[in-house]
Amino acid sequence: GQRLHAGGTGKAARTGGPAALRRCQASRMSAAPIAAVATDVAASDETSRRRHVTIGLVVGVPASAIFLYLASRNVDAGAVIELLRRADPLRFATGVCALCLVYVVQAARWQWVARRHARLSLGRFVELVVGGIACNNAVPGRPGDLLRAHWLGRAAGVSRSRAFGTVVVDRASDVLVLVAALAVSSAAVGHHAGWLRRLDIAAVALAAIVVLVLLAARRHTRRVASGRLARSRPARVASGVLHGIGATVNRRDAPVVAALSICAWALWGLGAWLVAAALGIQLSLLETVFVAEI
């Protein structure tokens, strides 16, 4: 390295004179601090990653054990083992694979939604989706979606507010598809209980609210593009969330997001139906979808 640098410096001195020589020496002097900073940043990231893993093991494993005990303390272990022994292994394994594919499709959908803000691999999005779902299942209050926004912002180097906007669009697509599936499956199943009619009305109202929020965010994005910017910090945060939502609400993206959402929940229904059939629970595919929407 020293030989190459000496040779390059000598060549600069011969061809460019003293000015070129000074530029070569200055570039060599400035490269050392930059390399040192990059090394320090990498070491800091590694230390932070190890600390997070340690915290996850120390806090997450005991918490998971406690919640698992609370969820299974009244379960007859012998009956569960006997049921699993009689289960159809092929259907059961196929159903589990279908349920696992749901996370991959949801990650692909989120990657598509967030592609204007974050350029990460599909595998990275799968990690974030699974991590968020795990937090939702283990921690009260379902903070997984907030954590997904935080993780995406940190991994992609974008603001948390805009990252959260992509999560809102991702979850909104789930809501709209589930409401549509509930309408189709409830009509096919034929239940007419009073509570189900009230649930249908609430679902339609929720879908209408989601659509209004998406349209308002789209309008806000166009207004910001025209030059009207928020001044206060809360307003900037809200504007960032709305921009993250509105940037992905358009006619070109809607069919892709809708198709991936339908695919994800179709896989979920198929997986649940296969697992139920493997365990001897007789449900039609539409009944399985109906139960999933409820």
Q: How are the SSEs placed, and which strands pair?
A:
Layout: H1 2-72, H2 77-86, H3 89-113, H4 122-138, H5 144-156, H6 160-189, H7 194-225, H8 233-246, H9 254-278, H10 285-293
Biggest β-sheet description:
none
Which sequence of SSEs, written as H and E, runs from N to C?
HHHHHHHHHH
What structural category arises from helix and sheet content?
Answer: mainly alpha
Helix content: over 70%
Beta-strand proportion: under 5%
Uncertain stretches of 5 or more adjacent residues: 1-15
Contiguous helical run count: 10
Average residue pLDDT: 78
Span between N and C termini? 67 Å
Rg over alpha carbons: 27 Å
Outline type: globular
Task: Count every beta strand, where a strand is a DSSP E run of 2 or more residues.
Answer: 0
Summarize the structure in words.
The protein has 294 residues and is mostly helical. It has helices spanning 2-72, 77-86, 89-113, 122-138, 144-156, 160-189, 194-225, 233-246, 254-278, 285-293. It is globular, with a radius of gyration of 27 Å.
Primary descriptors:
single chain; 294 residues; mainly alpha; 0% strand; disordered N terminus
Brief account:
With 294 residues, the protein is mostly helical. Helix content is 84%, strand content 0%.
